[in-house]
Automatic annotation (TrEMBL), chain A:
<keyword id="KW-0472">Membrane</keyword>
<keyword id="KW-1133">Transmembrane helix</keyword>
<protein>
    <submittedName>
        <fullName>Branched-chain amino acid ABC transporter permease</fullName>
    </submittedName>
</protein>
<keyword id="KW-0812">Transmembrane</keyword>
<dbReference type="GO" id="GO:0015658">
    <property type="term" value="F:branched-chain amino acid transmembrane transporter activity"/>
</dbReference>
<keyword id="KW-1003">Cell membrane</keyword>
<dbReference type="Pfam" id="PF02653">
    <property type="entry name" value="BPD_transp_2"/>
</dbReference>
<dbReference type="GO" id="GO:0005886">
    <property type="term" value="C:plasma membrane"/>
</dbReference>
<dbReference type="InterPro" id="IPR001851">
    <property type="entry name" value="ABC_transp_permease"/>
</dbReference>
From TrEMBL, chain B:
<dbReference type="GO" id="GO:0022857">
    <property type="term" value="F:transmembrane transporter activity"/>
</dbReference>
<keyword id="KW-0472">Membrane</keyword>
<keyword id="KW-0813">Transport</keyword>
<keyword id="KW-0029">Amino-acid transport</keyword>
<dbReference type="InterPro" id="IPR001851">
    <property type="entry name" value="ABC_transp_permease"/>
</dbReference>
<dbReference type="Pfam" id="PF02653">
    <property type="entry name" value="BPD_transp_2"/>
</dbReference>
<keyword id="KW-1003">Cell membrane</keyword>
<dbReference type="InterPro" id="IPR052157">
    <property type="entry name" value="BCAA_transport_permease"/>
</dbReference>
<comment type="similarity">
    <text>Belongs to the binding-protein-dependent transport system permease family. LivHM subfamily.</text>
</comment>
Length: 374, 296
């Protein structure tokens, strides 16, 4: 059995004094996330048209729903990064806990007739307990075997959903959400904006939780596990327990994302249980930059956006005009994303998050005059 | 009684399919530590190349000798694909396990999407010889010939791989490499050539599984490889990574378990039993049935 080495995370660039980087912009940097959040909150009030980027105006329901899905996946990727980027665990079964949230909410509301305020916490608690139980078994293995076991358990979930045991899940057709018992503010096309804010709130919660955990003493132990598990053991800490905590927490966050996703999409379909969803989470995190603060969030948002938009890009006139051997692959979003992903593994190992420092280096190299001034 | 013989033989057919996919995966993992998610793609390439050759390649066809030519073409295409993947994509990343997994994940996503873009997402009817559609009566049970073909092919492949590992110089290097790669390298032998060879063997076996599996199912679709791959992974883990014989035992156990439980229990229960078997094996014997050795 080989040990899985943690992904090489580039060290954060040393802090550059403000007077060297030219003042005001860098002093604003700490407030940048807050600024982005404010823009994201007031975004639905804008009627701006961005032709080519979104189909309708910014506040049209279609655009808001796409943005809400992107935000949920940004949060999911950040939660998955707690496992992959920050603890060094390669789980191939993360879709299971997301699906537990989606199907849990859907079944409790549609089949059991519970109100949302009961169904949502139950689904989240259920998903968390499921993650805890499976983690307790799977974490007895390490490395690639751990990846296999989580993959196998997630496969059981996919089979259970697809075969429709007990007539609960609706099988291959999925289960549309019964909206009659939901709060009025979450139902209907006109209220998509509320779902958008809900998704944004979910993303903010996940980011805060992940930051809080990774900044805490527990987070430092997790980073230690990623870098050298044996050493943590030698220090007298139990790696199993800490990994189980991270695994359960990430599972709970994914289940919460499932609840929000279920409300946005208005139901559940079996494709969310597939191992492909976990693989795409992995792609999001690696594209964004594992173990970084904003990388996974950006990666998740960008991946879902491209996944949706590349379909219409592929059927647009510019691509149709290309010869068939080019236009057909380009109309498959997964082909484009998979290729970008492979290139990213080779040429941008730190993902999007490492792009800024790299570009800064390049810029400095191209402007020798400025460096001499400093 | 008939039912039991039929289930045993169809279960063995399934086991043969799993073994063809898992043997290559197991060798690649045992020797090179590469968890190859793109293995399902080799299977898809083999199946589609056979399908294409049967319709377009001169001399190949859906029957008789033409079918053999078509399958040979499919296996050659799968082997070529595997060698190219190893040389171009995997080789620059050796000893970086996670990156290798990531690249094969990306490759499986992009490759399946490419198959889908070229030949459509729907399953297509597969050209197959007339006799594979018929059944043979064995001890009163009517067994489909396609399944028997798979079993025979898997036994031949198992024998060929074992003979290769046992009696050739490269087989010796592979066996030694699985056991202790550093030592083989320290003795001045270039293990990387063996990596390429193992990828080629795995690609050929997977492509054969793709072609013969499509004969068995009667259709070919881009997603075929992905669903088989998960069970092949389970077979590899149960059998012990790096052990061809362990993969064979595990494939038989998984195939029979799945077939019998799916027949006597609810449909889908067999798949779940297989995962339960995996959990039990991992908890009791984490290194798998055979441990890490190229020969049991």
């Amino acid at each position: 059995m080989t040990e899985v080495k943690s992904p090489e995370v580039p060290a954060p660039p040393a802090a550059v004094p403000a007077e060297l980087t030219g003042g005001r912009v860098s002093r604003l940097r700490p407030y940048l996330p807050l600024l982005v959040l404010v823009v994201a909150v007031i975004l639905p009030y804008s009627t701006l048209h961005l032709p080519g980027i979104f189909e309708g105006a910014l506040n049209s329901p279609g655009t808001l729903q796409l943005l809400a899905v992107c935000l949920v996946f940004g949060g999911l990727a950040a939660g998955y990064d707690l496992l992959f980027g920050r603890t060094g665990m390669l789980s191939f079964g993360h879709a299971l806990y997301f699906a537990a949230g989606v199907y849990g909410t859907d079944i409790l509301i549609t089949r059991a007739g519970l109100p949302l305020w009961q169904a949502a916490p139950l689904a989240i608690v259920g998903g968390t307990i499921l993650a805890g139980l499976i983690g307790a078994v799977a974490l007895r293995t390490v490395g690639i075997a751990f990846a296999m076991v989580t993959l196998a358990f997630a496969q059981v979930g996919a089979i259970l959903v697809a075969r429709d045991f007990g007539g609960l899940t609706g099988g291959e057709e999925g289960l549309p959400l019964d909206v009659s018992g939901l709060p009025a503010g979450l139902v209907g096309v006109a209220n998509t904006v509320n779902l958008y804010w809900l998704a944004l709130a979910y993303l903010v919660v996940v980011v805060l939780v992940v930051h809080r955990v990774s900044g805490s003493p527990t987070g430092r132990v997790l980073a230690g596990l990623r870098d050298d598990e044996r050493r943590i053991g030698v220090l007298g800490l139990d790696p199993y327990r800490f990994k189980l905590v991270a695994f359960t927490l990430a599972g709970g966050l994914a289940a919460a994302g499932g609840v929000v996703y279920c409300l946005i999409v208005g139901g559940a379909s079996p494709h969310i249980t597939s191992s492909e969803l976990t693989l795409s989470l992995l792609v999001m995190v690696v594209l964004g930059g594992p173990g970084t603060r904003w990388g996974p969030v950006l990666g998740g948002i960008l991946y879902m956006y491209l996944d949706h938009r590349l379909v219409s890009f592929g059927s647009s006139g510019a691509v149709e005009a290309l010869p068939a051997f080019l236009s057909r692959p380009l109309s498959e979003p997964l082909f484009v994303l998979g290729t970008v992903f492979i290139l990213a593994v080779y040429f941008f190992p730190g993902g999007l998050a490492s792009l800024a420092p790299r570009l800064a280096l390049l810029r400095d190299a191209l402007r020798p005059g400025r460096r001499r001034e400093d | 009684m008939d039912a039991i013989i039929l289930l045993t033989l169809t279960g063995l057919g399934l086991a043969a399919l799993y073994f063809l996919v898992a043997s290559g995966l197991s060798l690649v993992f045992g020797l090179a530590d590469v968890l190859n998610f793109a293995h399902g793609l080799f299977l898809g390439v083999g199946a589609y190349a056979t399908w294409w050759a049967a319709g377009n390649l001169p001399g190949a066809g859906a029957d008789g000798l033409g079918f053999v030519v078509a399958v040979a073409f499919g296996v050659a295409a799968g082997t070529l694909m595997a060698v190219l993947v190893e040389l171009v994509l995997i080789r620059p990343l050796y000893s970086r396990t996670i990156e290798q997994v990531l690249v094969t994940v990306g490759l499986s996503l992009a490759g399946v999407a490419l198959l889908q873009a070229t030949w459509g997402a729907d399953a297509r009817p597969f050209p197959r010889p007339e006799w594979t559609r018929q059944v043979t009566t064995i001890l009163g049970a009517q067994v489909p010939n396609g399944g028997l073909l798979l079993i025979i092919a898997a036994v031949l492949v198992l024998a060929a791989i074992l003979a290769f590992l046992q009696w050739t110089r490269y087989g010796l290097i592979i066996r030694a490499g699985v056991e202790n790669r550093e030592m083989v390298t320290a003795l001045g032998i270039d293990v990387r050539k063996a990596f390429t060879l193992v990828f080629a063997i795995g690609g050929a076996a997977a492509a054969l599984a793709g072609a013969l599996g499509s004969v068995y199912f009667g259709t070919v679709s881009p997603q075929q490889g992905g669903s088989l791959l998960i069970f092949a992974f389970i077979v590899v883990v149960i059998g012990g990574m790096g052990s061809v014989v362990g993969s064979a035992y595990a494939a038989v156990a998984v195939g029979l378990l799945q077939q019998f439980v799916n027949y006597y229990g609810t449909s889908g229960l067999g798949d779940i039993c297989v995962v339960a078997l995996l959990a039990v094996v991992l908890l009791l014997r984490p290194q798998g049935i055979a441990g890490k050795a190229a020969i049991a």
